[in-house]
């Protein structure tokens, strides 16, 4: 979810001509591949980001221009893994501690100010940067990257199979998170699904003011980065009510993920409401391979 956190540093979609210049094997030698990509990629992305696209590059090399396909956007936190992992609670605790330590505040005041900045800006970090000149990358290192995800998030074979059952000749898969890049990439790698998506729209902590879900500009930006022009070609799944509500208002088709045990909203956020990602087969059947 992370409705309180999105992005400014776009991940560019490669042209069909560029795809044809790329090798179709997996990115096993990251240093050599990053050198080979540096002349054709507008922004020299890191090896970890380039590796993120291995599967999609292989598909594109054989399938040609895929830019006219619809895009299915996936949120990451509390969506690709269960809320019961309590990652969000751990994150909130780390944010409170960061406020207390770096602003020399008692715990109660740190919690209050964290809540105030979240309410006013949608992101606690934006208040820190605006009012206290906090280094956003230091924040990322001590909050997002400090989460003990390796002991919490494990490979999910069922989720991987679900994604592999999606017909890539019918739809493209893209990640859309309000977290920073390192956190998003870390999560999908731990889940064992980092090779299933063509790209990632994330929050660039160095870009202030931040633009994040559910702001309309965030949906516009993710479309631009994913290379899709028509909102009617955008499909979405997220655990945030407001993220799904505003996605539908922007013209997307959205599925609000409300896990079993979570109180259902009195009115639906968007066109669809599901309890588990496996229900994507039922609401978006056009994107799945026929059995």
- Count of beta strands: 6
Distance N terminus to C terminus? Answer: 31 Å
Strand order of the largest sheet: 3-2-1-4-5-6
Radius of gyration: 19 Å
- Beta content comes to 5-15%
Average pLDDT rating: 84
Protein name: Pyrimidine 5'-nucleotidase
GO molecular function: nucleotidase activity
InterPro entries: HAD-like_sf, HAD-SF_hydro_IA, HAD_sf, Pyr-5-nucltdase, SSM1_domain
Pfam family, one: Hydrolase
Task: Provide a descriptive summary of the structure in words.
The chain has 291 residues and is of the alpha/beta class. The protein has helices spanning 16-21, 30-37, 47-51, 54-63, 87-102, 107-121, 124-132, 136-142, 157-164, 181-191, 216-226, 241-249, 280-283; strands at 71-74, 172-176, 200-201, 234-238, 253-257, 272-274. Helices cover 41% and strands 8% of the residues. The protein has a six-stranded parallel β-sheet, with helices on both faces. Helix 10 (181-191) links the parallel strand 2 (172-176) and strand 3. The longest helix is centred in the first third of the chain and has 16 residues, at 87-102. The protein is globular. The model is unreliable at 3-50, 53-57 and 59-63 (pLDDT under 50).
């Amino acid at each position: 979810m992370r409705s309180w956190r999105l992005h400014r540093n776009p991940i560019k979609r490669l042209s069909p001509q560029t795809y044809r210049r790329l090798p179709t094997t997996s990115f096993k030698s990251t240093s050599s591949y990053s050198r080979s990509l540096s002349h054709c990629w507008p922004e020299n992305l890191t090896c970890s980001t380039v590796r993120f696209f291995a599967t999609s590059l292989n598909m594109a090399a054989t399938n040609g221009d895929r830019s006219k396909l619809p895009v299915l956007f996936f949120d990451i936190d509390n969506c690709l893994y269960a809320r019961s992992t309590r990652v969000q609670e751990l994150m909130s605790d780390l944010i409170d501690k960061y406020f207390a330590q770096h602003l020399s505040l008692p715990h109660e005041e740190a919690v209050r100010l964290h809540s105030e900045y979240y309410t006013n800006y949608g992101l606690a970090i934006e208040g820190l940067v605006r009012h206290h000149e906090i280094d956003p990358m230091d924040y990322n290192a001590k909050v997002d990257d400090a989460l003990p995800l390796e002991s919490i998030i494990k490979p999910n074979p069922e989720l991987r199979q679900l994604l592999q059952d999606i017909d890539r000749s019918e739809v493209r898969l893209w990640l859309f998170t309000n977290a920073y890049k390192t956190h998003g990439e870390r999560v999908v790698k731990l889940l064992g699904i980092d090779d299933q998506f063509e790209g990632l729209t994330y929050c660039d902590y160095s870009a202030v003011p931040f633009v994040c879900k559910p702001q309309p500009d965030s949906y516009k930006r993710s479309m631009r980065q994913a290379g899709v022009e028509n909102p009617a070609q955008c499909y979405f799944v997220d655990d945030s009510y407001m993220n799904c509500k505003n996605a539908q208002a922007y013209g997307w088709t959205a599925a609000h993920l409300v896990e079993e045990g979570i109180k259902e909203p009195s009115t639906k956020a968007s066109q669809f409401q599901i309890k588990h990602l496996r229900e994507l087969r039922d609401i978006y059947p056009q994107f799945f391979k026929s059995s």
